[in-house]
Design goal:
With 112 residues, the chain is an all-alpha fold. It contains six helices and no strands. The protein is globular and about 30 Å long.
Length: 112
Amino acid sequence: MANEFDPDLPSNRLIFDIRRDNDVWPHFKERLEELMEAYGLSPAERDAFRAVDVRRLGELGVHPYFLPQVTRLFHGAAGNTTKSAAAEAYRRSFGEQIVEHRDISSEENPHG
């Protein structure tokens, strides 16, 4: 999963600021290129954002708390269930580990 987070990574500042700005976050997708430029994201960060690759963002140093926030910035939080677009985007990035975790849990507790 995610490596240690880098508090100085521009993506962390971008996510922290944008998710709290009611004038910006609803238009995040439309303003993505402008915001990435304004926050000085590296080419690797930009590629990960464009692909909505939260796993890669984690590898680059985005704080683990912010990773699901990224999918919500792109897909919204309305109807935020396990079947929502945001949850599906997160699952695409971490699917193998999520499945492995679920399989391990079910083996430990065969009745639950």
